[in-house]
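Work Package 3 (structural annotation) set out to generate three-dimensional models for the target panel prioritized at the project kickoff. During this period the team completed the workflow that converts sequence records into discrete structure tokens, so that structures can be stored uniformly alongside our sequence database. As a representative example, we reproduce one entry of 79 residues exactly as it appears in the project archive.
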Amino acid sequence: MARRERKVQEFEVAGEIIRISGNNNYHVMLENEEGGKKEILCHLSGNMRRFKINVLLGDRVRVVVPPPFDRGRIVFREK
């Protein structure tokens, strides 16, 4: 029987696209509840690539960030 691995806790936070890098990478400015801000590098999730969701500069997005909180995955584009 295969050993079960622990699931890493991921956090979903809101952010805004501030810079677009090549190869589906985006620099996103995250916002905390305390008002703090942090910039991280993110990539598009598989479903966003599959359904060809366009993400542009200035768009509000939801990002899933696992520890150590330096990279993330864009999972939703706000309207």
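Strands lie at 11-21, 25-31, 37-44, 60-65, 71-77.
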